[in-house]
Amino acid sequence: MTLPADLIVRAPVRGEEGSIAAMIAACDASYREWAPPGWEPPPPGRELDRWRGRIIDGSWWSRVAVEPGGRVVALVCFTQAVVQSPLRHAGKLTVRQARIAEDQLELEPIPQRAHVSAVFTHPDRWRQGIAAAMLEDAQDAMRTAGYAEAQLWTPEDAPARRFYEATGWRHDGRRQWLAEMGMPIVAYRKAL
Fold first, then answer.
1. What is the pTM of this model?
2. Which of 3, 135, 141, 180 has the lowest CB atom count within 10 Å?
3. Considering only the top CATH level, what class is 8-191?
């Protein structure tokens, strides 16, 4: 799969968080086409701090597709897949410590599994092969990093599910509620 000739794919850089957040907000707004009546997207800019951290800390493999004018029109991102479980503490805890501990989670890596946390293409650039090409590049990077499989989550009613299934991803039966989006999401996996 090849990208349109006007795009450059590269790692995001500091200062692009606003452009990334604007692109994600445009994608979120497109959910109104298929989301339940009355659904509203999260407030614009909710992604700013998240992307600032991902760009700075280096633990996420991320690529953006950028137009000649500098507008970010696509994003793909992955990291190590983890299972979240309550933090385990040795010994007795005070009541206050126990309450704090209830809210803390321990992240346990899932061996040889990557987690794709973002696949976005600005709606005015849909159906140009951008997401497929960028996801293919990400999968190559996952294989190079030693991952044997990948997972991702997407809204249960999203048209994107057809895209994932057409590119070899399979729903693995997991489903959960994503409060920040106000909708159910489902998990997909793919052998690399």
1. 0.85
2. 180
3. alpha beta
